[in-house]
TrEMBL record:
It catalyses: alpha-D-glucose 6-phosphate = beta-D-glucose 6-phosphate. Catalyzes the interconversion between the alpha and beta anomers from at least three hexose 6-phosphate sugars (Glc6P, Gal6P, and Man6P). It comes from the Eukaryota. This is Glucose-6-phosphate 1-epimerase. Belongs to the glucose-6-phosphate 1-epimerase family. One of its GO terms (molecular function) is glucose-6-phosphate 1-epimerase activity. It comes from Hapsidospora chrysogenum (strain ATCC 11550 / CBS 779.69 / DSM 880 / IAM 14645 / JCM 23072 / IMI 49137) (Acremonium chrysogenum). InterPro entries: Aldose_1/G6P_1-epimerase, G6P_1-epimerase, Gal_mutarotase_sf_dom, GH-type_carb-bd. One of its GO terms (cellular component) is cytoplasm.
Amino acid sequence: MVERANKPSALAATPGLPPQAQVNISDDNSMVTAQLPTGETIEILLHGATILSWKDAAGDEKLWLSENAKLDGSGPARGGIPLVFPVFGTNSGHAVEKLPQHGFARNSRWEFLGKSTSEGATAGVKLDFGLSSQNLDEATRKLWPYAFGLIYSVTLDRESLNTTLVITNDGEVPFEFQTLLHTYFKVNDIESVQVTGLEDSPYVDKLDGLKVKNQSGTVTFTGETDRVYTPAKGPSHPIVISDGGKPRFRIVRDNLDDAVVFNPWVDKANSLADFTPKDGWRKMVCVEPGSVSKWQTLEKGDAFEAAQTIYLE
Ligand SMILES: O=P(O)(O)OC[C@H]1O[C@H](O)[C@H](O)[C@@H](O)[C@@H]1O
């Protein structure tokens, strides 16, 4: 059952009942945080429903966040897991061409819809967030005049983080969209990172005139990287990020055919005003499950559901 978290204080454990996750809304109403009884934590900024932090029970951060990421709603946050909808990048000649890069979802104020918890050894918490056409400002509604609903569910348990997006067409006409979960993983050293699960897969190289190439072997990093893979092994085959020879993250996609791999390296990081520290590119890699190489069409009354689950290795 979904219930609204108390505001602003935490839901304290009730004596005699099994411990459950504690959920807080910040005093300024900008952030939702949750902590499992076993210590894992998560922080979600309502601006963009952007997951800013995910820590394991030992307090180790799993996501990379820029030190000067915008957290005041003045723009999308650099780092964590921004949500891309309804366009990836920009797209000329399409109905979305006037929208900002990566669309409006990451730069809109979402509503916190509530939480549900599970108890016992696998105690977890699910937090639901919503955005609809009615939440958009008039200027954005004019640029993309469709009636839509987004429900974004973030589920944290001891071993994994799941982010599920349900998109509904609540209007009278079909619309086309792209979507992506722009996950910034925190790593120790990008030059020791290997991404497996993309072997023999075609990819579009955004840094080489959108040429279509083929991945041979694992993905390693020696310079700026910006590629849209359509993994050959299908959506349910995991993509694994290893760091220093050890597997760290296993990503399972559901209904997301593509995976973008991105690292800005020196020059691009320097060109991004909100990217700090400037050598932070050494400590991050983006592996971004999405549906971006083509357009999804959503007919009136239809829904599209997609997800990523990230397991800690
Ligand atoms: O700077 P942003 O708009 O957040 O985009 C950051 C990056 O997102 C994706 O990974 C794209 O493939 C890149 O081309 C882009 O540079």
